[in-house]
Write a structure and sequence with these properties.
heterodimer, A: about 425 residues, mainly alpha, ABC transporter involved in vitamin B12 uptake, BtuC, globular, B: mainly alpha, two-stranded antiparallel sheet, 17 helices, about 0% strand
């Protein structure tokens, strides 16, 4: 829990209507969880016989493997027990029980049970699944960090998508023209900072609504990058074939059995995301910069009164966010695809916003949420590669639906910065 | 100030905004002109004039594509054959066809902006409206055509309204920010459409692409009885709906409540109005309008449901609502302009092979300039508006 939310949810002297509502919601949640838990048992009884294999590569793909064999029914029972007990606990104790902890405990069993049942006997290669999740999670996590910095400073930034596209486009061109990989991300960062400044300038200097400013950037970036692709890149493919970012095996750490291939054989992007998460957490909650940033988002008038330059903070936050989002955009063209393609961000910028909310406006939470969303992508890839016919649309919708549920506070309400999106008038 | 000047004054900023957007657009057009950029070292003047000539050609092709070629009109008058008239009228017909969905989504967004609800889920409401219309049309295909058609349109309205109701209800009841929920619902709607297009009920089995069966058995009647002109009664319906929305917003009690909630929620609440009710109503009306637009699109213009039925109409609608000052009449005018741009863009793409996407970028610039009127005034050194004018001008923009 973040410092800001702790401040808000600290117990009031008497029970308020909101608390009563929270209690009621908690009981309802408890009942629902318990019922779902029991439902899992009925599935379990039907699938005791079917075997599930989870395979982890110890060192490299196709080499020696470590396998877990179990029955799908057993996984369903574990999912049912954890959910059911969590529900009863919530029902018994009310809102003081953290549903998130129980969810965190039960979720892996649910996922394992569902995947196991869908695969129907085929082995699930968990190394690829986890590695894939991390890979898919990168742009989402970075986008979430960018959006979070803005919202913490009081600026609503819905233009992560547009910055991804611009970053991907310029990174591909820059890296192709110079032939040097690292030039791509650098140029993408510069462009991202520029766009961030433009948005802040529109929103602060010219009082354009922040959502409108974001729409301008998203729309403009889509039009501009499509235009550049069709007019220039399609005909001159030599400036859209950048050198790609190669995976780096971290010495020693990548030798660790099972964990090495998942965590320490990725591209530098992965490590940068992890470092960003740690640094950002420290910066937000332990430094003066972070305190001022959060103050600008929570109560800008108070911050302004004690001499904090709210306007400057918001400009800088938008530019920093632009840098992060532009950098993440470079990943799309330099890593995944190896070239820029039209609309290649495909809504990842909006999923990033979802991850920010789901993660409670907090870097570690956002990274976790990005992993969950990345996992749903990776699962889809795994299932389709094994020829399991599940409509991909159902899995794709999950992050969006989860976000709606979380924003609406139906399950574990999260609260964003109070003044995100509200213009600040310097008095 | 004379009456005419006072009436034209609010048009000044939008017109200048569109103009500025085109100027910036032409700069990008010239910067991406590799052929002429390469000429700069040897022949800078030739490069500049050549590039500018290309820009002028492109915008000329845009105008011809949007409004038709005067020469062809002359030919049509001379010959008087249906074929000549078809060629002469097709660009205008296509412009109005392109404007029709924009009028619906633009009105949808304008209603929500008036109530200070940021419905950016026009895309989702539009595609679900189209889906609803296709489903109902296929389900009722054995009934008399008028019944099927009315049913299909109603289906579109219903699906769109439902997709507007969800974020409205969540906002009113739980305070969930409608920007977030509508963005997410856009994607969910897209997935629902893809899922629906997998079913045998909807899918055209002979096609490898996910596209529905042809729905031309209940097409919206065409407006001009010439073969090859797609303009249909949906366009007239959009005009009627715009008039109805105008009446609803400015002449009814409910409309007053919506606008009051939009201007000052606290004051509206003190006056005994239900803020939550206004938000839900605005979102439902908004969703229904977008859904109706989707229904007309699939039953009138394209006659087949697919993922491509929507091309960002929900997002463009934000530009339209702003450009039209969130007034139905203004939105209709803005939609006609953007319809002309989109359709003219096709003409430009064919004639000069400049990608149509340039116009998406130009539209984004239009939003930027319209949303920042003081920027436009500064560029053109206009006097700041008088207080009374300011009040009406910001009324729309700040919604």
């Amino acid at each position: 829990m973040t410092a800001a939310t702790a401040l808000v949810t600290s117990p009031a002297p008497r029970i308020s209507a909101a608390q009563q509502r929270a209690e009621r919601m908690a009981r309802v949640r408890g009942i629902i969880f318990a019922v779902i838990g029991i439902a899992a048992f009925s599935i379990a009884s039907g699938s005791m016989g079917s075997e599930v294999t989870f395979r982890f590569w110890i060192q490299e793909q196709g080499g020696a493997a470590w396998e877990i064999h179990t029955a799908a029914g057993l996984l369903w029972i574990l999912a049912g027990v954890t959910t059911g007990v969590g529900g009863l606990h919530q029902l018994w104790k009310g809102a003081s029980v953290s549903w998130r902890r129980w969810m965190a405990l039960a979720l892996p069993f649910w996922i394992a049970a569902i995947i196991g049942t869908l695969l129907a006997g085929k082995p699930a290669v968990m190394t690829n699944l986890f590695g894939g999740s991390l890979e898919y999670a990168f742009p989402i996590a970075m986008g979430a960090f960018a959006a979070m910095i803005c919202e913490r400073s009081g600026m609503l930034n819905i233009a992560i998508e547009g910055k991804f596209l611009l970053g991907a486009c310029v990174a591909s061109i820059a890296a192709s023209v110079t032939g040097l990989v690292f030039v791509g991300p650098v140029v993408a960062i510069i462009v991202g900072v520029g766009v961030g400044w433009l948005m802040a300038w529109m929103a602060i200097r010219h009082r354009v609504d922040q959502i409108i400013a974001g729409t301008v950037v998203n729309f403009g970036a889509l039009g501009l990058t499509n235009f550049v692709y069709l007019r220039i890149l399609q005909l001159n493919t030599d400036i859209n074939t950048p050198p790609t970012v190669e995976a780096i095996k971290v010495p020693l750490l990548s030798e660790i059995p099972v964990l090495g291939p998942v965590f320490f054989s990725g591209t530098p992007y992965l490590y940068i995301a992890l470092v960003t998460m740690v640094v950002l957490t420290y910066m937000l909650f332990k430094t003066r910069w972070g305190l001022r940033l959060r103050a600008s988002g929570e109560y800008p008038n108070a911050a302004g009164t004690v001499g904090v330059d709210v306007i400057k903070i918001r400009y800088r936050a938008m530019m920093l966010a632009g840098a992060i989002a532009g950098f993440a955009g470079s990943y799309l063209s330099l890593h995944s695809a190896g070239s820029f393609q039209m609309n290649m961000s495909a809504g990842k910028g909006f999923i990033a916003m979802a991850a920010m909310i789901f993660g409670g406006w907090n870097p570690i939470g956002a990274f976790g949420a990005a992993l969950v969303f990345g996992f749903s992508d990776a699962t889809q890839t795994l299932l389709s590669s094994l020829g399991v016919d599940v409509p991909p649309q159902i899995l794709t919708s999950v992050p969006y639906l989860v976000t709606i549920v979380v924003v609406a506070g139906l399950v574990g309400r999260v609260r964003g910065p109070a003044m995100a999106g509200v213009p600040y008038e310097q008095g | 100030m004379s009456g005419l000047r006072r009436r034209l004054r609010p048009l000044l900023v939008p017109v200048l905004a569109v103009l500025s957007a085109f100027v910036v657009g032409s700069l990008f057009l010239m910067l991406s002109d590799l052929k002429h950029l390469a000429m700069i070292p040897t022949d800078p003047i030739g490069a500049l004039t050549g590039a500018m000539g290309d820009v002028i050609n492109a915008y000329r092709a845009l105008l011809l594509g949007a409004f038709g070629d005067p020469a062809k009109f002359a030919l049509a008058f001379e010959q008087g054959t249906p074929k000549a008239w078809t060629t002469a009228l097709r660009p205008i017909s296509e412009t109005l066809v392109a404007a029709t969905p924009l009028m619906f989504t633009g009105l949808a967004i304008a209603v929500s902006f008036r109530t200070s609800v940021f419905n950016i889920g026009g895309d989702g409401q539009f595609v679900l409206g189209a889906l609803g219309a296709s489903i109902v049309a296929l389900a009722l295909r054995d009934l008399p055509a008028p019944i099927t058609l009315v049913g299909a349109l109603a289906g579109g309205v219903l699906f769109g309204a439902l997709w507007g109701f969800v974020p409205g209800f969540l906002k009113a009841r739980t305070g969930a920010h409608e920007v977030i929920t509508t963005i997410m619902l856009n994607y969910v709607a897209l997935q629902i459409v893809q899922l629906a297009l997998r079913t045998d009920f909807l899918r055209q089995s002979t096609n490898s692409q996910p596209i529905s069966k042809v729905l031309d058995f209940v097409r919206v009647p065409l407006l001009i009885p010439l073969p090859g002109l797609r303009l249909h009664w949906g366009f007239i319906a959009a005009l009627v709906v715009a008039a109805l929305i105008s009446w609803f917003l400015f002449k009814t009690t409910k409309g007053f409540e919506l606008r009051s909630a939009g201007q000052n929620l606290t004051a509206a609440r003190y006056a005994g109005m239900s803020a939550g009710g206004s938000i839900i109503l605005a979102m439902v009306v908004s969703g229904a309008l977008a859904g109706l637009g989707g229904a007309f699109q699939v039953m009138g213009s394209v006659t087949q449901m697919s993922n491509d039925v929507n091309s960002g109409y929900g997002w463009t609608a934000i530009a339209l609502a702003l450009l039209g000052g969130t007034r139905p009449g203004g939105v209709v005018a803005a939609a006609l302009l953007f319809g002309a741009l989109n359709n003219g863009g096709h003409g430009m793409q064919v004639a000069t092979s400049i990608p149509l996407d340039l116009l998406v970028f130009i539209q984004a610039l239009v939003i930027m300039f319209v949303a920042a009127p003081d920027l436009v005034r500064k560029i053109y050194r206009l006097r700041p508006p008088k207080p009374e004018v300011a009040a009406t001008a910001t009324e729309g923009a700040s919604a």
